[in-house]
Amino acid sequence: MTEFFQSLGMNYEAAWFVATICGILLIAFPLMLAVAIIIYCDRKIWAAMALRKGPNVVGPFGLLQSFADGIKVFLQETIIPSGANKGLFIIAPIITFTVALLAWAVIPFSETAVLSDINVGLLYILAISSLGVYGVVISGWASNSKYPFFSSMRAAAQMISYEVSIGFTLISVVLMAGTFNLSDIIMAQKGHIGGVVNAYGLNPMLFPMAVVFLISAMAETARHPFDLTEAESELVAGYQTEYSSMSFALFWLGEYANILLMCALNAILFWGGWLPPIDWEPLYAVPGIVWLFLKIFVFFFIFSWVMATVPRYRYDQLMRLGWKIFLPLALIWVVIVSGYVMIRDHGWPL
After folding, report:
1. Residues near 345 by Cβ (< 8 Å), separated by ≥ 6?
2. How far apart are CA 57 and CA 64, in angstroms?
3. CB within 10 Å: which end of the chain, N or C, has fewer?
């Protein structure tokens, strides 16, 4: 894209700047539209599993319901509690929303469609996703209310617990691929199993980690059944209790952007990303971005399915699963995969 703007007479620096801004907008605007669509899909899936209709009035088949909700919150009055720290209260949802968008900079949508194809893309994702907890903690503290404060403490403990498991899970993926670059991790899965299946997920060496990553992703995004930060039976609405209008909407948009990010990472790290499921030449006629979006939707359906059917965990169950099951399993699997990679690359030791 930089070359295109240079052809219009711009110097390299200006062309690079304009091309980068265009690339950001090409990701941010469709992502916001995708969030509105998946909120609609989420509600339709929940309704179908409860034998209800879901949104069906605003627009054809209720397709405009998410946009009507967005207009509603935009027109509402922004209320700031008198005892709140106003500066931090306002900036907290901005942090959550901004961090949720930043992570998409290194997501490869196809072999050529990626904003920044850096060699440490996976480390960048880990670093950015770990910042999301600050928006939640700041909102809970700045609200000057006990329920949001309890929620923010839960969020900090929960996200740290499952980020540790996710980190060790990703070490196994990096060992198998030999790189932190997300595009290279995808290509390392091409024809990986018997030269036929484009996926790490079906590889016996990494399938357990694919399951651990999927469940940990639900906990990392505070998605049901791990939504202890928003438990309405205990904490009213958690860290969002005192928020209204667009401040609340930014939390909502950030949460769904993070869910989409985790669905994309599931597809990229374990299920071949933009590659077709089978390494069969006719399937490559379908654009890679279509395969990636289909895989993202499959994982989002799993997220919604779990939310509609699985009861919420207790807090002690949540912590026990993260620290006593997932963390030891991920550590053991790092050792197993390390041994496998050494044997694969260097043969059996004499």
Report:
1. none
2. 9
3. C
Whether residue 1 has pLDDT greater than 70: no
Amino acid at 72: K
Dist CA 223 CA 235 (whole Å): 16
What pLDDT was estimated at residue 232?
Answer: 62
Q: CA distances (Å), 52 to each of 47, 233, 290, 306, in order? A: 5, 23, 30, 17
Place of tokens 């995808």: 186
The amino acid at 249 = A
- Report whether 264 contacts 292 (CB < 8 A): yes
Side chain identity, residue 75:
L
Say whether pLDDT at 234 is over 70: no
Burial class for 190, CB neighbours closer than 10 Å (0-12, 13-18, 19+): middle
Among the residues of 2-85, which ranges form H helices? 2-7, 12-49, 65-75
H-assigned helices in the chain: 2-7, 12-49, 65-75, 86-102, 121-142, 146-177, 182-187, 207-220, 232-235, 245-270, 288-309, 315-320, 327-346
Angle between helices 245-270 and 288-309 (to 10 degrees): 120
Taking Cα atoms as reference points, which of 211, 253, 206 lies closest to residue 100? 253
- pLDDT score, position 11: 76
Express each pLDDT in 293-315 by its tens digit: 999 999 999 998 888 888 888 88
Cis peptide before 328 (omega within 30 of 0): no
Q: What local confidence, expressed as pLDDT, does residue 331 receive? A: 92
Higher pLDDT, 149 or 211: 211
d(CA 211, CA 329): 11
Contact 232, 10 (CB under 8 A): no
